[in-house]
Amino acid sequence: MRCVRVWFSKTGLSKYISHLDLNRCMTRAVRRAGIPLWYTEGFNPHPYLNFSLPLSLGAEGLNESMDIRIEGEMENGEILKKLKEVMPDGIDVFDVTDPENTPHDIAFAEYAITLQFCGEADKFLQSSLEALSGKELIVEKPGKSGRKKVMKQVDLLPNIQSCQMEKVGDDVKIHTVLPAGDKMNLNPTLLTEALFKVSGITAELIYITRERLLTEQMTSFK
Amino acid sequence: MTKQMEKLLAKVQKPGRYTGGELNSVVKDLSKIDIRYAFCFPDTYEIGMSHLGMKILYSLVNERDDAWCERVFAPWIDMEEQLRENNVPLFALESGDPLTAFDMIGFTMQYEMSYSNVLNMLDLAGIPVRAEDRKSLTPLIVAGGPCVCNAEPLTDFIDLFMPGEGEEVTNDVIDLLKIAKRENWSKDEFLKKAAQIEGVYVPSLYTVDYNDDGTVKSVTPHGGAPAKVKKRIISDLDTVFYPEKFVVPFVEAVHDRAVGEIFRGCIRGCRFCQAGFIYRPIREKSSDVINKQCKSLCDTSGYDEISLCSLSTSDYSELKTLLPSLLDWTQEEKINVALPSLRVDNFSDELMEQLKRVRRSGLTFAPEAGTQRLRDAINKNVTEDEVLVTCRKAFSGGWTSVKLYFMLGLPTETMDDVAGIAELAQKVVDEFYANPNKPKGKGVTVSISVASFVPKPFTPFQWEPQDTRETLVEKQNHLKSSVHTRKVNVSCHENHTSYLEGVFARGDRRLGKVLECAWRKGCRFDGWDDQFRYDLWMEAFEECGVDPHFYANRRRSFDEVLPWDHMDYGIRKEFLIKENKLAHQSITTPNCREKCNACGANKLNGGKCDAMC
Fold it and tell me: What is the pLDDT of residue A215?
C-alpha cells in the first residue's frame, strides 16, 4: 500500500459542490477510474481519501489535493491518466505525486478575490486600505471553548500575511495570504465581510479562488 | 451561469441542487433538436433524483437524436423566494433555460401530496396553471405516474395524461408532437389525434355529469376519444430500454445508488395496496439481464451500492440465480447489495445467509395488521408464526433490531386489532430473549411504524370509507397505551396529511378549484410536515363549497359510477367487488402463483402473466 497525492482544480459550477459532497464525488470517481485502490479493512470497506484542506462552498481552488491509497503496482503517470478520464465537469486532475509534506505542514493559503461593485469601488478601496493600515480589525469567528461552540473575537491585522488591493474597472481585486490549516484558519470571507462593514459598502458578487496552500516557510505545499 | 444566477445561489441552501452539470447528465446541441422535453419531479432534488422512473425516461428520450430531455425539480422555499423576488423563471438543470422554452413539460405524479407543487412549478415558470388558459400547442403539459390512475383532480391543469408505463407512449407522444409542430396544428387538433394513441388520456375530451347527491352520473367522451382509456404496459422487460448510466448527483439524494429493476406487478393481492393492482400483470426480467444492467450502472457511476427494485423482492422467481451472480462481482468490487421489500413468509435461511454476505442493514417487515383476523381481511397472507419465526432467524443471525410496519384504519378494524399490534410487538421482543445465543450486553429494539390507511382507486377497498381523523387519533392513543415495554418504539403518521391524501386519491374534477385555491393561499410541499398548512386547505374547501368528507369518509355503493371508471387498468371491477366481499368475511385469496384469480390484468399483455410460469 502506498499513498499518492492527487492534484486537481475545482472551478466553474463545481465550486457549488460542498466538501462532504466532494468526498462522495471523488470516492466514486476513483472507483470508476479502475486504479488498484486500497480499501479500509473495517466492516464497511471503502477507499481511503484524505483531502489536504477543505475548500469552502462557493470558492474555487486551483491547487487542491487529496491523498489516496493504492495497493499494487501502478505508476503515478498511469494513475493520472486514468483519473483524468473519469472526472465530472469542473474538476480537473492535473498531477499525481508522491507526497512531500503532510497536511499538518499547511500554515497559510493564498487567495485571489474579486469583488464586483455597482459604482462604489473607489470608496470601498479607500476605506479598506485605511482599515488595513489601522490598529486593529476585529471580527467574530466561530470557535470552541472546551466543547462548547462560541463566537470568538479575532483581530485580523496581525494574521494577514499580505494583502494587495487594486481597482480594475468596477471590480476590486484582492490578493492575500491568510493563515490556513489545523492550527489557525481564517476564511477569506471574514476579511471581505470586515471590509464591507467598515466601508459600509457591500459587493454585488464575490469570487474567491484559493490559488495554493503554503507551509510555515511560505513554500508551496507539496 | 449568469451573474444573476450566481447571486441567487449565494443566498440559498445546497446550491448544488440547482446547478446541473452532474456526471452523466446530458447536454445536446439545440440546433439538432426538434422536441425539448422538461421532465419535472414535483418535489425536491434529493427526492426526485432517487426516482427510478425519471432515470429511465430521461435516458430513453435522450437516446433520440431529435429530442432532448432535461430535469426540473421543485425549488425549495428559499430558492422559490429568490426566483420570485428577482423575476427569474423556473429553469431546467441541463440548459438553464426557462420552462417556456420547452415543447413538452411532463410531471410524474407519485403521491397526492405533491399536487400543489405542480401548480407552483408552472406558475414559477410563468405558465398559466389552467389548461384552458394555455392556447398554443406548446408547451404541452403532460403527466404520468401511479396517481394518474385517477387523474380527475388534476384535469383542470394538465393537457394530457399517460396512464401506465411510459417507455413506449412517451416516444409516441413525442413523435406526434413533432409532426404537429412541423405542420402547425392547433392544440385542439393535436389533443384529438393524441387521444387515439393507446395509453393517452386527454381530459378535455370528456364531460363529467353529476347526480343530485353529488356522485358522478356519467363520463362522456367527445371527438373520437375512447370511452375507456387503457393503460399502457411493456410486454417484455428483457428487451425494454433500461439506462446504462444514471445521472450521479453531487448533492446526496435520498436513494443515491444503482438500481436493478427485477419485475413489475405483484402476485400478492393485498387488498389495501394500490401498487399491487395497478402495476399488474406480473412481468419478470431475467436474472442475467438484471446482472448485466447492474454491472453497467456501477461501472459508469462508481456507486458502491445496488438496490433491487420491485414490489416484493423475495417473490422474484430467479432470486436464487440472481443473488450469487451479483455477489460474484459486487463483493470483489466492495459493492453492497440491498434487498428491500422482503416478506416474512419466504425469508429463507438461505436468503439470510446471503444477506449476511453483504453489508448488514436493518431488517424491516410489514405485517400491516396486528391480528390474524384483520390480516386475513386485508389479504396479507402472513401468519403470526411466520413473523415470529422470521424474527427468530434474524435474531439468531445476529440482528438486534427489527422494524415492523403496520396500518391503522383498515376496513373492519376493531380496538382489539389495534391492541393486537402491541401484542405482536411484545411477542417479537420475547423471541429475542428466548434466543439462547443472543449477543451479550445487547438489548433488542422493535420499532413499530404505523401509517394511516388511505383507500385508493383500483383496490378492493376503493368503496370503503376512510376512518375520520378523530377515530384514527383514538386508535393511535389506544395503541400507545397498549405498549408496556420500552423495547418497543411506536411512531405514527400525521393524520391531517392522510386525510387530504384520501380526499385527492378518490377525488373528482370538482377538486381542481380547491387545489388551485389552496395553492393560491400558499400551499405547497404538502408532504413536508414543516410546510403543510392544514388550516389553509380547510379554508380552501370552505371557500369552494366542497366537502372533503364526501370524498374521504363516505362508503360508496358498488353500483356508483366512480370518477376513475373510464380508466382501464386491466383489473375487472367484478374481481374487486368479489375481493371486497371476501374482505368483510375475513377470507383470504391465494396469491397469483398458487392460483390465478382472474383479475383480468393479463389481457393487457395478450393473456400472458409471469405469475403462472
Answer: 94
pLDDT tens digits, A25-45: 999 999 999 899 998 887 778
Residues of B in contact with A88 (CB under 8 A): 21-23, 248, 250
B361 touches chain A (CB under 8 A): no
B250–chain A Cβ distance below 8 A for any pair: yes
Q: Which helix (H) or strand (E) holds B368?
A: strand B363-368
**Residues 53-72, chain A, touching B (beta carbon < 8 A):** 57-58
pLDDT in tens, B517-539: 999 999 999 999 999 999 999 99
Residue in B closest to A45 by C-alpha: B334
B10/A39 touch (CB, cutoff 8 Å), yes or no: no
Say if residues B123 and B157 touch (Cβ distance below 8 Å). no
The whole-model pTM stands at 0.93
Name the CA radius of gyration of chain B, rounded: 24
Residue count of chain A, please give it.
Answer: 222
Distance between CA atoms of residues A102 and A126, nearest Å: 40
- DSSP letter at B130 equals S
Most distant pair of Cα atoms in chain B: their distance: 77
Between CA B459 and CA B449 the distance in angstroms is 23
Q: Which residues of B touch A20 (CB under 8 A)?
A: 252
Q: Among candidates B435, B549, B428, which has minimal Cα distance to B487?
A: B428
C-alpha cell, B29 = 446541441
**Cβ neighbours, 10 Å, residue B219:** 21
Contact criterion met (CB < 8 Å) for B299 and A45: no
> How confident is residue B440, by pLDDT bands cut at 50, 70 and 90?
confident
pLDDT along chain A (222 residues), means of 10: 95 94 94 91 86 94 95 91 94 95 93 91 90 87 82 87 91 94 90 90 93 94 94
A204 touches chain B (CB under 8 A): yes
